[in-house]
Every structure is written in structure tokens, then in C-alpha cells.
Amino acid sequence: xxxxxxxxxxxxxxxxxxxxxxxxxxxxxxxxxxxxxxxxxxxxxxxxxxxxxxxxxxxxxxxxxxxxxxxxxxxxxxxxxxxxxxxxxxxxxxxxxxxxxxxxxxxxxxxxxxxxxxxxxxxxxxxxxxxxxxxxxxxxxxxxxxxxxxxxxxxxxxxxxxxxxxxxxxxxxxxxxxxxxxxxxxxxxxxxxxxxxxxxxxxxxxxxxxxxxxxxxxxxxxxxxxxxxxxxxxxxxxxxxxxxxxxxxxxxxxxxxxxxxxxxxxxxxxxxxxxxxxxxxxxxxxxxxxxxxxxxxxxxxxxxxxxxxxxxxxxxxxxxxxxxxxxxxxxxxxxxxxxxxxxxxxxxxxxxxxxxxxxxxxxxxxxxxxxxxxxxxxxxxxxxxxxxxxxxxxxxxxxxxxxxxxxxxxxxxxxxxxxxxxxxxxxxxxx
Length: 431
Ligand SMILES: [Zn+2]
Hints:
alpha/beta; TIM Barrel; nine-stranded mixed sheet; eight-stranded parallel sheet; globular
């Protein structure tokens, strides 16, 4: 029975309203004791003096590309990248090849994650067969296999009839639907926000209204069906206003996230045709970013994700129009949130941690995201004051397409523990 003691760290556990210097004693993969000056003898003692100790981070939206595009990322490399960022649980999106629209793919992902024994991987299944938006996939069967939600991410189901039927089915079986919101008739699929920056670049942009209308559609259909709905990577003023209104009207089963790049950056980062800034939804203008930050403050936005989207070089070192969508993010998400929200004075660090631990855990209804005695010991230790410069080439992810490459950030994971096993120690991956 292996024992570890993490000593003298500032334990920040929003689920238990805790923020004080404490020791944590871990035995047999679980948190056995949290107290001042624990003297029990442990096999391994980690000195966390000057660091913060938090629940392992939970990221509700990653693309690990396995099966099908293992040249971009695998469950192994994606998991190592997550560990480097202090993330111990991820939710993988279904746009793999083949699409995760059946039990076999869900089983494959779970089996591979179990063999690797790196982090907790929670797969999702597609809403429709092949993500074609037509025939509803075997939602219940996939959930029975271990899918934590059903989502079309990578696409949006355009046919309201299909989406409503899927939501009604989901409501009957208490299945969580996660929606990527985009009206395809309004979106130009160019990865740019429609505005002055896209005009300067001579690119057709995707207007905010494309996301606004799709968010409204999803909210109304979810209300009609009674299903649990989580809205992925919201990025516009209209989207957050619609979510805020719906929550005020008492829509308790509605939750929403923002991907960290959408509160940290504006569309001007794409100037110079920086293809790492090409993403879906696009990075928006300052007006939208300001509104998103307000929505984080008032909890219209429940949690932060990365939308970690690794690509190979030929898909990014090319003309902007031809480049793939997305940026890697699991190695930088905590630092980005700390730098652009806590250090910038918008919200306290406790709230950053809450939106990366207990809040995402509640959304997918997993018993994680806390440092409660008896809980599985998924723990991250961060040096909140460490200043570092992102070097994507040196990252664990196969994808080097990081929008924050070269950025100076504050805060870095030092140790990462999953179920009592140290997966990263002193910033060195242990596996
Ligand atoms: Zn998406």
C-alpha cells in the first residue's frame, strides 16, 4: 500500500471552501487525511512549500485524435500533455476516424486509456451516425459503455427536427447533450471572426450572429425536450446573453463553458496570417472578450476548457484559407487562466480553480474535482508565481500548433498525481 504526503502547500479546494496551508496524506490511491502537520510516515514526501495544491484539473473538451489520426495525437501523447498542464481528467470529442458513434469506438478509447493508466479519459459519443446530421446514433448504448455525454462537436446538428428528437431521447434517459453552436448557413468556415481584422486580412469572416442563433436554438430545443444541455466553447456576446437569460428564467439543466483562448485573446492575433489563431469558433473581437469576462465573473459561464486540437505541420504551415482549425492547449490552460483572469485582477484564483475542477465535474456528474477525504487522489501542485515562456516545440503534445507559443505566462504545474500515482514530479513526466 503506497503512501505519499504532500506537505506545506496552500490547499485550494473550492468544493470544500478550503484555502489554507495543510498537508495531504494519500494512501492506496485515495486521500486519507488533510490536516496541519501530518506526522504519519509516508513512502514519499513532496515538499509543496510556496506552491498551491488543488484537485487535478478537468477539461471537458479535448481532441486526442485516436482512433484514426494518430499522426496528430494519440491518447498517450495527449494524456502526457495533459499531465504537464496539471490536468488529470479529460473529455474527448467524438470526431475521430471512425467517428465515435458506436460502442466499439467508445470501448476502444476506454480500453486504450486503461492500458496506458495515465489520466482519466471520459469519451463522448456523436449525436448522429458518422456526424452527418441525419440519423441519431446509438446514444443509450454508448452511454452504457461509458460515454459521459453525447455531442456532435466538430460539427453542429443543423436539422432542428433531428436535434430535438435527440434531445427528447436524451431527456428520457438523462443523457447530457453537449452542443457546438454554429449556423452553417451564416458561417463562412474560415476560422476568422467577421470584423475589421478579417477585413484587413481580406478574409470572409464568421459573424457572431452565427453562434448567437445556434445557441438560442439549442436552448429552446433543450427547454422543449427537458434534456441536460452543456454549451461548448461560447465566444460571443449574443451567446452569453442568451445563456444568462435562460439561467435567470430557471433553466437549471443548462451549463456553459468558454475555451481559455476566447477570454485571453482577440482576433488581432491572426494578423500576419497566423494559422495557429485559426479556430472554430473563431477568436473574437475585444467587445466579445469583455462580455465573456463579465459572464465568467457572474457565473453565466460555468467552466473553462481548452478545445485542445493538435495538427501536423502541413495542416498549419500553409495558406490561412487552407489551414486546419484549432490550437493545442492542455499544457497551457491553467497558466492562461491564471495570467489573464487571476493575475489580471478579473477573478480570484479560487474561482479559476473552481471552474477547472469541481464545476466541470458537476457537469458530467463524476465524483471528482475535490480534495475531500476518501476521494481518489487526483491532485495538481502549481507554482503560481513561476513566469515562463511557452515553447510549443518542447511540449508533450504531438501538435506544435499552439496559439500561445512564445507567450509569457505566469503559473506552472510542478507535480501531477492521478489516483495516488505521481505522473509528473518537479515538472518531469514520470511515465
Ligand atoms: Zn467545437
